[in-house]
Amino acid sequence: MTVEFLTTVFGWMTVLNIGFLAFTTVMLLAMQNWVTGVHARMFKMEEADVRKAYFAYLAKYKTLTLIFAVAPYLALKLA
After folding, report:
1. Domain range holding 24?
2. Of 57, 72, 58, which Cα lies nearest the Cα of 13?
3. Assigned domain for 2 exists
4. Cα 69–53–74 angle (5° rounding)?
5. Would you say residue 7 has pLDDT above 90?
6. pLDDT of 79 strictly over 90
7. Which DSSP string corresponds to 3-36?
8. 70: confidence class by pLDDT, cuts 50, 70, 90
9. How far, in Å, CA of 16 to CA of 22, rounded?
10. pLDDT digits (tens, 9 = 90+) for 24-63
11. What's the domain count of the chain?
């Protein structure tokens, strides 16, 4: 594997992960009441707890994307 190939792989991985994160965030904001109600009934949780779980999910996904996709891409671009 060459550095150029790895840079391309991490670049596309970054684009896909940030795209998925943005899509998920927009969908949760746009359909918040409906999705919250569905998941609250599905998992027998309070709606406030479901909203906290969404926030934790988005925060963890963003952190993992930064660590495992963006950081290696930037490191390879600078190398």
Report:
1. 7-78
2. 72
3. no
4. 10
5. yes
6. no
7. HHHHHHHHHHHHHHHHHHHHHHHHHHHHTHHHHH
8. very high
9. 10
10. 999 999 999 999 999 999 999 999 999 999 999 999 999 9
11. 1
In a domain, 26, yes or no: yes
Instruction: Give the 3-state secondary structure of residue 58.
Output: helix
- The tokens of 38 are what? 């569905």
In a domain, 57, yes or no: yes
pTM for the structure as a whole: 0.89
Question: What is the token pair recorded at 63?
Answer: 């952190």
Q: How far apart are CA 28 and CA 33, in angstroms?
A: 9
Residue 30 lies in a domain: yes
Whether 35 contacts 68, CB under 8 Å: no
What tokens does 47 get? 């709606």
**C-alpha span between 49 and 16 (Å, rounded):** 28
Instruction: Tell me the two tokens of residue 8.
Output: 């391309």
